[in-house]
Amino acid sequence: MASLASESAFDVLAHAQKLERSGRQVAHLEIGEPDFPTPAHVVEAGLRALRDGETRYTPPAGIPELREAIAAACVTRGIAADPDSILVTPGAKTMLFYAILGVVEPGDEVLVPDPAYPMYRSAVMFAGGVPVSYPLRASARFRPDIDKLARRITPLTRAVILNAPQNPTGGGLSPAALERIIELAERHDLTVIADEVYGQISYGDAPAASIGGIAGASARTIIVDSFSKTYAMTGWRLGYGVLPPALVERFTTLAVNGHSCVPMFVQRAGIAALTGPQTSVQSMVAEYRRRRDWLVPQLAAIPGVTCALPAGAFYAFPNVERALEGLGVLAHDVADDLLENFGVAVVPGTAFGSGGEGHLRLSFAASQPTLERAVDGLRRCLETLREHPHVQT
Ligand SMILES: Cc1ncc(COP(=O)(O)O)c(C=O)c1O
Questions:
Q1: Which pTM was predicted?
Q2: Which is the closest atom of ligand 1 to the Cα of 227?
Q3: Which of 228, 233, 236 to mutate to test the pocket of ligand 1 (most atoms within 8 A of CB)?
Q4: Could you read off the pLDDT of 3-36 as tens digits, one per residue?
Q5: What is the pLDDT of residues 147-206, one digit of tens each?
Q6: How far away, in angstroms, is 233 Cα from ligand 1 center?
Q7: CB-CB contact of 19 with 339 (8 Å)
Q8: Residue of 29, 97, 100, 117 with the most ligand 1 atoms within 8 Å of its CB, for mutation
Q9: How many helices (H) and strands (E) does the chain have?
Q10: What are residue 348's DSSP bridge partners?
């Protein structure tokens, strides 16, 4: 249990809410959660199911209609999936946890991006495995260097975790990089765990490339996806895995032991999300893009701050190191100061691993006035630090 770490975004949120209870105003940019409501037709489908008395246990892998709708949606994204290869779970996180628990044996090494969503490392260590970081660098727009990743593979390597578009950096993965990863996985007999929860939130011309479209992927890849971000459904807890055929039965048994099943009304809402109009997804992504295009140049205009343009997801990951030069202050001190003295809640980059040193993560799934307060707060915070370095702890 001691190997499980908490998630800083939730810790920062708790601290921010404490400040709010004492009467302070806080601009929230810490939690990665759409600020839009779940589309009305999706809510209605869930309510209808409840009113119709659909309140009982469901099949552990998910109801056939939802698994069919997920498989059909996967196929339109180029992912070779059939309904029998889908396991429906309470959110992507449960599926990620199962994937890691199911694949990693004590002593196995698992390649994990750094910085990254914190639960990957936690879950690998919980399973007795050893997380081995592969770096994501701003200079490469936070795309992994596949040669460097390959050099970290040893006879003990069991799996590689991918996340694109990425939390916290917004980095992507090209089809060519995905192909090379599958080649490596085949050569070294690795399982690929591909977290694609931000797959639809991508600022290219098309959704981000899925590893499921690469020849040979389906035999050794667990694709993890979710309704949370795409359909603004974080609180519904609905996600899924697309599994290699050989693993479906074992993972369904894990689901039986872990959560039994996902509530019927949630699954009905999921069907409505996938099969209904996609206009709300398109307009949410268009709005995130507008905010990204406003926020990133504003951050980069603050003296000493640089910020790569995220290719997807809804996070800006500015580097504030140059602004702190010679002050003896780290980015996480800036995050604390920003919250305490400027009422702006962000997550320090090191919450995502040592590769996040010098950075802050700002979620732009937040309103324009909130983003404006954040930029203004960060500018003033860094100015104050430079003018009065001795005041800081
Ligand atoms: C990269 C990544 N994967 C998975 C999740 C979890 O998503 P869900 O709400 O479906 O559990 C998140 C949530 O922030 C995330 O950022």
A1: 0.96
A2: 10
A3: 228
A4: 888 888 888 999 999 999 999 999 999 999 999 9
A5: 999 999 999 999 999 999 999 999 999 999 999 999 999 999 999 999 999 999 999 877
A6: 11
A7: yes
A8: 117
A9: 12, 12
A10: 360
